[in-house]
Design a protein that fits this description.
- It is a single chain.
- The protein has 207 residues and is an alpha+beta fold.
- The protein is 44% helix and 27% strand.
- The chain folds into two domains: 11-141, Jelly Rolls; 145-206, Arc Repressor Mutant, subunit A.
- The protein has helices at 14-23, 77-84, 106-115, 117-143, 146-161, 170-177, 181-193; strands spanning 25-29, 34-36, 44-58, 64-70, 92-105, 165-167, 197-200, 203-206.
- Helix 3 crosses helix 4 and helix 6 (170-177) packs across helix 7 (181-193).
């Protein structure tokens, strides 16, 4: 199995880590590909070994908003909850950066909860982290201006990839922020005039 499986740090239980590798289906994805659609049935949960995945919520009018990122060593807690309760997905998961993902069947997810305390602890810690991230989203939407939210999002993308050059369109940024493209384009132009970013075709470079 790939060494990337070691990213799931269950150092106190090498048996659990081995079982994760043996029972998972491993797939690779390119940036922009969707791994979970809204309203789809959840038969396995994704564990990200390499790259990054963004989790998005879409409203009935088509507007989207970014909820959080799944980084290496993490899973989608929304998929986990939906899967164990036999519900359809309430979110969409899309690859942000080329990724390698382990898909663990739901029956194994629940089996490991009963057998390995480390697995349950892992789920609880991620649940806590996602809850805090969702509170940040609510706080930003309720209390921060769009220009502040845009800067925070750009900074988060730089932290995620470790690169100052971000490949993204104004439309994609607007979707992740839940606002209009024209608003994002205007704000980015102002940031460029202020010397904070450099704009290119479908690219933004943080200065």
């Amino acid at each position: 199995m790939p060494d990337s499986g070691n990213i799931f740090d269950f150092s106190t239980s090498p048996e659990l880590r081995k079982k994760l590798q043996l029972n998972s289906i491993i797939k690779t994805y390119l940036s922009g590909q969707t791994i979970v659609q809204e309203n789809s049935h959840i038969r396995s949960i994704p564990l990200v070994a390499k790259g990054a995945v963004k989790v998005i919520r879409t409203e009935e009018d088509g507007r989207e908003i970014l909820l959080y990122y799944i980084k290496p060593g993490e899973t989608c807690i929304m998929s986990f909850l939906g899967g164990i309760h036999r519900e359809t997905s309430k979110v969409k998961a899309e690859v942000e950066e080329d990724a390698e993902i382990f898909f663990l069947p739901i029956d194994k997810v629940t089996e490991f909860i009963k057998e390995y305390p480390e697995w349950l602890d892992y789920i609880f810690k991620l649940y806590h982290k996602r809850f805090e991230e969702l509170l940040e989203v609510i706080n930003a939407v309720a209390f921060k201006k769009v220009d502040e939210r845009l800067m925070l999002l750009l900074q988060k993308k730089v932290e995620l990839t470790g690169q100052k050059l971000i490949s993204i369109t104004h439309e994609q940024l607007a979707n992740e922020l839940g606002t209009a493209r024209v608003v994002v384009s205007r704000l980015l132009k102002q940031l460029e005039e202020d010397g904070i970013v450099r704009l290119g075709r479908n690219k933004i470079e943080m200065v």
